[in-house]
Amino acid sequence: MDTIQTIIDLIEPSCFMSSLDLKDAYHSVPIARNYRKYLKFQWNSKLYQFRVLPNGLASAPRYFTTLLKPIFAFLRQQALTSSGYILMMYF
């Protein structure tokens, strides 16, 4: 996973920059049926089970970054400097 320093090091004079907010992106990543049993919780006497990658799962950023690596590799092959950085803030 890239760090903010990696991104700063990529910046050059006169370069163009943009950002992309992948809102709820984790919810587009399905969880295999045999792993869903580990993503259950009970609330108000009801049992819930995630079928997609949940926010707050400790391994979610690393897994999601792994999914994005081929996309960044493709962009770099096209001579487009690109980097990924995941920022999660919970209050």
What is the total tally of β strands?
Answer: 2
Largest sheet: 2 strands, antiparallel
Poorly predicted regions: none
Strand order of the largest sheet: 1-2
What average pLDDT do the residues reach? 86
User: For the terminal residues, how far apart are their CA atoms?
Assistant: 23 Å
> Any idea what the radius of gyration is?
17 Å
The count of helical stretches stands at 3
Shape: elongated
Strand percentage lies at: 5-15%
Query: Helix coverage percent of residues?
Result: 25-40%
How are helices and strands ordered from N to C? HHEEH
Which structural class is indicated by helix and strand composition? alpha+beta
Keyword list:
DNA/RNA_pol_sf, Hepadnavirus_pol/RT, two-stranded antiparallel sheet, 91 residues, Reverse transcriptase domain-containing protein, 3 helices, alpha+beta, elongated
Written overview of the protein:
The structure is a single chain. It contains three helices and two strands. It is α+β, with helices and mostly antiparallel strands.
Summarize the structure.
Helices cover 32% and strands 9% of the residues.
Q: Could you give the topology of this structure?
A:
Layout: H1 4-10, H2 33-36, E1 40-43, E2 46-49, H3 60-77
Antiparallel strand pairs: 1-2
